[in-house]
Amino acid sequence: MTEERVPVDPESSRAWVEVAQGTRISWHIFRNVPLPCEGSNFAAMRDLYPYEPVDERARSYVGAALEHLVMWADHAAPFKFHPEHEANFHQRPPYTLARAAMESAAQAVWMLDTREPVECVRRHLCLIRWDLQEHKRSKLERNEKEQVVARENDLIRRVSQVFTEDETRPPQGYLWVLQRACDADGLDLGADRVERLWRAASGSAHGMYWPTQDLQRLVEVPVEDGKSRQIRVADTQGVADVLRAAYEMTQYAVLKYAEFAGADIWALLNASRAWLASKVTIRDDADPLILARLRSAIEPPEPGSTPP
């Protein structure tokens, strides 16, 4: 039987690898962010609300997003290649990983996208209640459900002097959080575009039929006796689009987390780029300017600028 495979076009391949390597830099930055320093935003919020620390939940959201994208990176652009190594791609898995990364990172972005510590704590409480309600639904035994309900009721009573129960109500689902996260200053992701990508990713993850039509394309492949037949393959540019969106949301969450912890973001970025340069397999035709950028320290720009 003829093997029906189609090479990934160079433009899409380059975009996929950029997401993979950018993810690794973000992962290395994240792993090396120190505990919140005195005077940092996270430290101030621990003073305001010392029970379930904002920084611990933020770290969980960001870490979850990175886990999904690192899995993509390890498949699409492994550090080392065996001479016989081949990577095969299908339409649904990258959309599924991108969706999971976007949903995870968006929680951190929305929670931290405020200059008011009290508002950050309020959003934090909304996410905690959402988490508790989902936790309750996962339980089968009545007494276990009641224990989770009791934890939520305790939280509501604990903050009742500052917030009403309605002010800490859970978000209206992942799409609601994603759309609000798109309002963050400096995050160049439109809410309408993210909704389109999220619905495509959700349909792909859930095995719906319409993504087979909209997110794949027909190509001719040779078969026996010199004939050909049409098969459906992933629209590789569509895969690149959803991966880029997930990466941009996650990268923003990583940098916001580092900023709120009081970390030296530029020092972390330089160290992470140098680490990546020491790990990747360099192609013979690699762009020397890109290699120089990876291997050399980068001078920080004017105050207020965001790392590239």
Features:
mainly alpha, 308 residues, globular, 5% strand, two-stranded antiparallel sheet, 12 helices
Secondary-structure map with pairings?
Elements: H1 10-31, H2 41-48, H3 54-76, H4 92-112, H5 117-138, H6 142-158, H7 174-181, H8 191-205, H9 210-214, E1 216-222, E2 228-234, H10 236-261, H11 265-279, H12 288-295
Antiparallel strand pairs: 1-2
Architecture overview:
With 308 residues, this protein is mainly α. The chain has one domain (10-295). It has 12 helices and 2 strands; from the N terminus they run H-H-H-H-H-H-H-H-H-E-E-H-H-H. It has a two-stranded antiparallel sheet with strand order 1-2. A hairpin with a 5-residue loop joins strand 1 (216-222) and strand 2 (228-234). The radius of gyration is 22 Å and the shape is globular. The termini are far apart. The mean pLDDT is 90.
Q: What would a concise description of this structure say?
A:
The chain has 308 residues and is mainly α. It has 12 helices and 2 strands; from the N terminus they run αααααααααββααα. 32% of the residues are buried.
